[in-house]
Amino acid sequence: MTGAIRHILLTASSLLLLVWVGSASAQTIVGSQHDLTVGGNAQGSTNNTDEVCVFCHTPHGSDIAAPVPLWNKVLGAPGSYTQYSTLQTPTFDSTEAPVGSVSLACLSCHDGTQAMDVVLNSPGSGGYNAAGNQIDQVAIGNMVGTPVPMLGTDLTNDHPVSMQYGGGGATAADPPGAFAGTLGDPDFRAPIRADVNGNPVWWVDSPVGTALTRESTDMILYARPDLGAVQPFVECGSCHDPHNSASQGPTSVAFLRINNTASQICTTCHTK
Ligand code: HEC
Ligand code: HEC
Ligand code: HEC
Ligand code: HEC
User: Fold this and answer.
1) Nearest to 134 by CA among 152, 115, 153
2) Kindly report the CA angle at 47 between 55 and 5, in degrees rounded to 5?
């Protein structure tokens, strides 16, 4: 085999490999808009690391200012956001808490206030810095593009987050299973409650998957103690799964828990 032919064959097989890797991982983070390693993220991507998880998670030294798993970024100050209730729509009837939980984690990139590659624990030995280090100052900056994908710190033009579910009513004192009491706003479907490690977890069953089982295709509610009794809250992660990059349904938006055909995301929670 001549060098030139071998080169062509090698190039052809590595192209095939690239195609294969691309399609095999279409549902996951790799190659998605949440993959900031080299791969063409519209908002910049870096050659400095091929660790796709490190932009969000670290195995050690994570930020615990909000209950987000092993979070590798400095979380914003809860008080730095303008919340939905300040718009004073006459019908809003869920009490808010300061922006927190998983919403704070999403906003650590999506509010545009810090570079998306500022991490607490950079890849490699001795990479920890409590103030955060940038993985690639040249290639990656703050998120741009308002009002989406860069939501900013004024959240009044976004679906509310960090508020109790359905006008309140469900709390950790309820028995497991579907909520049998009365929600503060009756136009909502009953949340389901279970316990894991003695901690309450809640969700609203979507039409996808198995009823009465908590799955990533359900609308996940987040337990928060801010209003006294621990109770279910709506956060960014209620509607979005940051790992599922499948382009969903008619809107072709990635990172939705289910596709929004016939607005089934909305009608999972709202009885409308
Ligand atoms: C763009 C940010 C981002 C990236 C990149 C990312 N994650 Fe996550 N991950 C999150 C957020 C946010 C949560 C919390 C989700 C929630 O609470 O609903 C989470 C939760 C998790 C959880 C716990 C919940 C679950 O689904 O089991 C695991 C495990 C996890 N991530 C693993 C990974 C791994 C492994 C990678 C790399 C292959 C990765 N993540 C990359 C943002 C990210
Ligand atoms: C995880 C459950 C959940 C999902 C999914 C959901 N919502 Fe909501 N939504 C709520 C809660 C809770 C409130 C606050 C309670 C209220 O005001 O009725 C709310 C508030 C609203 C409001 C503001 C009400 C007001 O009075 O200002 C609108 C409008 C709305 N949702 C529309 C939608 C649409 C459209 C979708 C689908 C894209 C959707 N919601 C998906 C739970 C959800
Ligand atoms: C490490 C930074 C980072 C974090 C953390 C992050 N994102 Fe993103 N996200 C991005 C980037 C970059 C894009 C691509 C923006 C663009 O296309 O211009 C994106 C895009 C998206 C999109 C648009 C997908 C589409 O098809 O247009 C959604 C939805 C989204 N993110 C939701 C979330 C949610 C929800 C969270 C928290 C659970 C989160 N993101 C956390 C960086 C991040
Ligand atoms: C109640 C459900 C719900 C909540 C809560 C929610 N989103 Fe979304 N989000 C959606 C839906 C549905 C879409 C798709 C809209 C469309 O088709 O244009 C979307 C789209 C997006 C997009 C992509 C928009 C675009 O045009 O590219 C981003 C980014 C995003 N959401 C981030 C977030 C972040 C960050 C939070 C928390 C602060 C959040 N979302 C909270 C339902 C929600």
Assistant:
1) 115
2) 135
Q: Tell me how far apart the alpha carbons of residues 184 and 234 are, in angstroms, rounded to a whole number.
A: 15
Question: How many whole angstroms separate alpha carbon 206 and alpha carbon 126?
Answer: 44
Residues 6+ apart with CB under 8 A from 120: 58, 61, 62, 63, 72, 73, 74, 128, 129, 130, 132
Token readout for 215 is 């799955």
Separation CA 92–CA 184 (nearest Å): 11
Q: How far is the CA of 239 from the centre of ligand 4 (A)?
A: 7
CA of 243 to the centre of ligand 3 (A): 10
Tell me which residue has its CA closest to atom 27 in ligand 2: 92
**pLDDT tens string 49-97:** 999 999 999 999 999 999 999 999 999 999 999 999 999 999 999 999 9
Looking from the CA of residue 237, the nearest atom of ligand 1 is 18
Judged on CB neighbours under 10 Å (0-12, 13-18, 19+), 79 is exposed
**171-216: per-residue pLDDT in tens?**
999 999 999 999 999 999 999 999 999 999 999 999 999 999 999 9
Greatest C-alpha distance within the chain: 78
* Residue recorded with tokens 């809107």: 251
Measured in angstroms, how far is the CA atom of residue 256 from the centroid of ligand 4? 8
User: Could you tell me which of 82, 148, 77 has the C-alpha nearest to residue 113?
Assistant: 77
How far apart CA 184 and CA 53 sit, in angstroms, is 39
pLDDT digits (tens, 9 = 90+) for 227-265: 999 999 999 999 999 999 987 777 789 999 999 999 999
Q: Which residues are CB-neighbours of 162 under 8 A, at least 6 positions away?
A: 83, 96, 97, 98, 99, 100, 101, 103, 224, 233, 234, 235
